[in-house]
Design brief:
heterotrimer, A mainly alpha (279), B mainly alpha (274), C alpha+beta (370), A: 279 residues, mainly alpha, two-stranded antiparallel sheet, C: 370 residues, alpha+beta, 6-stranded mixed sheet, 8 helices
């Protein structure tokens, strides 16, 4: 395959990633330093950091902070639950492993928006969860819908398979003989767990946290549906700026901020990863 | 399943499994439920299905979504396959950039990407609508497709094309009869995956649809916003069955026809996590 | 593809061939001819250029200089798919998505051979490699040895003028390898196709080949029959590569062509056979193979004195290591049935005048064609 033909192969990828990925992102980075004419909504470019300073107004900081907290807490709960499930699967015989994996992945293949909507039905007052809780003795209603908690449940639910898979892949590598070896050397089941399982799980855990935590920060659909317009996350705020308010420079600044936060998160996690590669 | 050995993990895991399936069950059950408030079971009815089927927005939405999904899958495959072929002989630095762009496209929250693309189209006066949505979907779909195709490509012996040439095949025929043929299961699986992602997409579609017909997920979003009736459950169940079927097909094709027979390893979608 | 060349044209002719990869010279000025119908091997250590040479014949590499001809026709620059040459790859390179039948039929289909003829010729090829019954299997279901046979059938079915084999037996265990060597030799005799075989295993090449070429660092050291190469090595490298060699350094005093009088350090004057063209004063090494070094009790005055270090019994052969104060370490070999020398004892070493050979040490000859 000669040089020119090979370069031609790169063309589709080049077009898609340059014009429609890198350039747009660069554009909003640029315009985050621009301003908007309040009268005719003309967006023009001029070096200003006003947009970033607008940030510090209470509402936006609050929203951003809530996004981070929510994303972080759901990612952590996701990690815990995901780990438990992945560990359980990895200790089953191969056939059972495949079955369990399929069972947990199939819901993932169904429409994202419909599943999220299902939680509206589930979590509403007078819905199944509410009535179950009252049957258990709760007074009043659960009042969980359209609060950060319902968003949290929605995110946890949607991203759990993404957390389970990488952890499972890491754990699957463990040679069952290692458990026996550890036991042979006098380790109790708990210590076996700590010294055999945990080190192997860490790379998968970190991968899972990246795959879950980063997109969760920018979630739009789940807060829309389960937040009922009352609870905003960064994603919704961003969308509003572009689709409704039309304050593009400010929206751009918001987008850039989200990206910066993400990159910082990513950077930290990647640093933890090679150190965790214990093989 | 040795439950006794894992007193903590086992019951929790089963609860998690239940947790995963609960919404599906709710949707399925309520799609036949006469009770509109869905606070309880009111009796079996197929009414919602006929409503959904006759809803013009839904029908248009379905048609629009199908067009977008097919177009985007095809384009994504073209990008993914050409990229993978280029990658084979690329320098390590070029590869690193290429891989980094794949990673970025997958990790970046869709909402950030969608706003950026929206803004670009606005600035260059490119009209929003079907084409814009297809382009948007292709950007991230091609990344997922690339991962699958690349993984398969890595398992192919580079000597295969040489062997084909040795046996009389011109470069094009060698590519077609050997490389492409061996890649086919991965290509099909990647295409089906891309199709499903497109079919299901909300964010990019919302941003880039402009004034044109909404794709189905956006229609559903609208219906949810206005707290429309259990019609949504009926639509939901039908959509769910559809996407599950497609994805199952993809996995089956990849795992069976896809096996290259490397000692001890089953071809599996999990490979992309390795 | 049928050939209509005269019987005089070599099957493969490499003239002045050179191959560079950037600064690295893989093959230096190579002049080599392979005769039609012969089993020809190229041997040498890793990195000597043998595989590169093979690839140039196949067409996967183009020579930086020189000409490659097949069947008398210049093939320089001709793409592999247009050459009347087929290759058996080291990794077999069987197409994983095709079954055995389709793998073997691949080349025929590219040549647009008719369905009936395809079926006939594929069946014939499969019979030739003794794989009947496996036509419908996928490569992944076959053992290493079976895959190798498929690779062979796939190449031979096209009736190439030359069959190139790149270390095809490397992945097989010893017993299978020996079996396959015999099969390959029989196959080549039966089919009559010119084989060009590349390997680093001298024994393997010797057991199958009509002629052998020894390469080192991109240079052709010697070409000849296995016996020529073994008994009359052209350089010390060749002498060491194809077997164990005892060497005694010395200087030519007079003689030639054919036999010379040599003054050997530590031994004295001897008559030793050697290549033509050695002038008086030329520095040489006398190469004596272990099996030609005879041990006699110490009293016999004629031989070289040495003490026995140890003797290893290998079944068919007994190798004896010896130490001589004047000549250093030496190796002798005798049939296993002969008695075992006692370690520490002193013996007298002699050899038949005919069973030694002079190797020039002043400079390595480029080619010694026989």
């Amino acid at each position: 395959m000669r040089g020119l033909e090979r370069q031609a192969l790169l063309l589709p990828t080049l077009v898609i990633t340059t014009f429609f990925f890198v350039v747009p992102l660069g554009l909003i980075a640029l315009y985050s330093f621009g301003s908007i004419n309040q009268v005719n909504f003309d967006v023009y470019f001029g070096w200003t950091t006003q947009n970033y300073r607008d940030f510090t107004s209470a509402l936006y900081v609050h929203t951003l902070a809530r996004s981070v907290v929510l994303s972080l807490s759901t990612t952590l709960s996701c990690a815990v639950l995901g780990f438990i499930f992945a560990y359980f699967i990895s200790r089953q015989p191969p056939r059972a492993q495949q079955l369990l994996l399929v069972a947990v992945i199939i819901p993932f293949w169904t429409s994202f928006i419909v599943r999220t909507y299902a939680w509206v039905d589930l979590l509403q007052n007078l819905g199944p969860v509410d009535r179950f809780a009252r049957a258990l003795g709760l007074h009043g209603h659960i009042d969980i819908l359209y609060t950060p908690y319902s968003i949290g449940i929605g995110i946890l639910y949607s991203y759990l398979p993404l957390m389970i898979l990488p952890i499972y892949v890491s754990l699957e590598r463990i040679d069952p003989a290692l458990y026996d070896a550890a036991a042979d050397l006098g380790a109790t089941p708990f210590r076996q767990f700590r010294r055999v399982v945990l080190p192997h799980a860490v790379p998968g855990l970190i991968a899972g946290i990246i795959i879950v935590g980063v997109p969760a920060l920018g979630e739009y659909v789940i807060p829309e549906i389960l937040g009922g317009g009352k609870t905003l996350m960064a994603g919704n705020l961003l969308a509003n700026q572009f689709l409704e308010t039309g304050n593009y420079p400010f929206g751009s600044a918001l987008a850039v901020t989200v990206m910066v936060v993400l990159m910082a998160l990513l950077f930290l996690l990647r640093k933890a990863q090679p150190a965790a590669e214990v093989q | 399943m040795n439950i006794r050995r894992h007193p903590v993990a086992a019951p929790l895991s089963l609860l998690i499994l239940l947790f995963m399936w609960l919404p599906l069950i709710v949707v399925a059950v309520n799609s036949f439920n006469t009770d509109t408030i869905m606070a309880g079971w009111g009796g079996f009815t197929g009414h919602w299905y006929s409503l959904a089927w006759n809803n013009q927005d839904v029908r248009t939405g379905l048609k629009t979504t199908l067009i977008i999904a097919v177009a985007s899958s095809v384009l994504s495959l073209i990008v993914a396959v050409t990229g993978a072929l280029w990658w084979r002989n690329a320098s390590p630095k070029a590869r690193a950039v290429y891989d980094g762009l794949i990673f970025a496209r997958i990790i970046l929250p869709e909402v950030v990407f969608a706003t950026a693309l929206f803004f670009l189209f606005l600035k260059v006066h490119f009209s929003l609508g079907l084409t814009a949505i297809v382009i948007g979907h292709t950007v991230w779909n091609s990344a997922y497709a690339a991962i699958i195709v690349q993984a398969r490509m890595a398992g192919l012996d580079p000597a295969l094309e040489e062997a084909a040439a040795d046996l009389g095949a011109t470069p094009w025929r060698a590519f077609r009869r050997v490389t492409l043929a061996a890649l086919m299961p991965a290509i099909i699986a990647a295409g089906l995956l891309a199709f499903t992602f497109s079919f299901d997409d909300v964010v990019t579609s919302v941003f880039l649809q402009g004034a044109s017909d909404s794709p189905l997920p956006v229609v559903i979003l609208g219906m949810i916003r206005f707290r429309i009736t259990p019609e949504i459950n009926a639509i939901g169940l039908m959509v769910m069955l559809f996407t599950v079927t497609i994805m199952s097909l993809a996995v089956i094709i990849y795992a069976t026809a896809g096996s290259l027979g490397r000692a001890g390893r089953r071809g599996s979608m999990l490979d992309m996590y390795r | 593809m049928t050939t209509t060349t005269t019987t005089a044209a070599p099957a493969v002719d490499l003239a002045g061939v050179e191959k560079r990869f950037g600064d690295f010279v893989a093959v230096r000025h190579l002049d080599l001819q392979i005769q039609p119908g012969e089993f020809f091997s190229i041997i040498g250590p890793s990195g000597c250029g043998k595989t590169t040479t093979l690839r140039m014949v196949a067409g996967f590499e183009d020579p930086t200089a020189g000409r490659v001809s097949v069947g008398g026709r210049d093939m320089t620059g001709v793409r592999p798919y247009r050459r009347p040459v087929n290759t058996v790859f080291q990794s077999y390179a069987l197409f994983p998505h095709l079954d055995v039948f389709e793998n073997v039929a691949f080349g025929l289909r590219e040549a647009r051979v008719g369905k009936a003829e395809v079926r006939e010729r594929v069946a014939e090829a499969i019979r030739l490699v003794q794989l009947e019954g496996r036509e419908g299997s996928r490569p992944r279901k076959l053992s290493g040895g079976q895959q190798q046979r498929v690779a062979l059938a796939r190449a031979l079915v096209n009736r190439p003028e030359v069959l190139l084999l790149d270390e095809p037996l490397g992945a097989l265990d010893l017993k299978l390898r020996t079996e396959m060597q015999n099969e390959l030799k029989d196959l080549q005799r039966g089919v009559g196709v010119t084989f060009c075989y590349v390997t680093h295993d001298q024994g393997e090449a010797f057991s199958m080949s009509d002629r052998v070429a020894v390469m080192n660092l991109g240079l052709l050291e010697q070409v000849g029959t296995p016996e020529d190469v073994y008994h009359r090595p052209a350089s010390l490298f060749v002498a060491d590569f194809v077997g164990k060699a005892n060497r005694f350094h010395g200087r030519v005093e007079s003689g030639g062509p054919g036999t010379y009088t040599v003054a050997i350090e530590g031994i004295g004057q001897r008559r030793v056979p050697g290549p033509d063209g050695l002038a008086p004063g030329a520095e040489v090494a006398v190469v004596v193979r272990p099996e030609n070094l005879r041990l006699a009790p110490a009293q016999d005055g004629d031989g070289v004195g040495a003490s026995v270090v140890d003797a290893a019994f290998l079944g068919a052969v007994r190798t004896v290591r010896l130490q001589s104060s004047r000549l250093g370490e030496l190796t002798a070999a005798a049939g296993g049935a002969a008695g075992a020398p006692v370690p520490g004892s002193t013996v007298s070493l002699t050899w038949d005048a005919d069973h030694a050979w002079l190797v020039p040490t002043a400079e390595t000859p480029r080619i010694a064609a026989t």
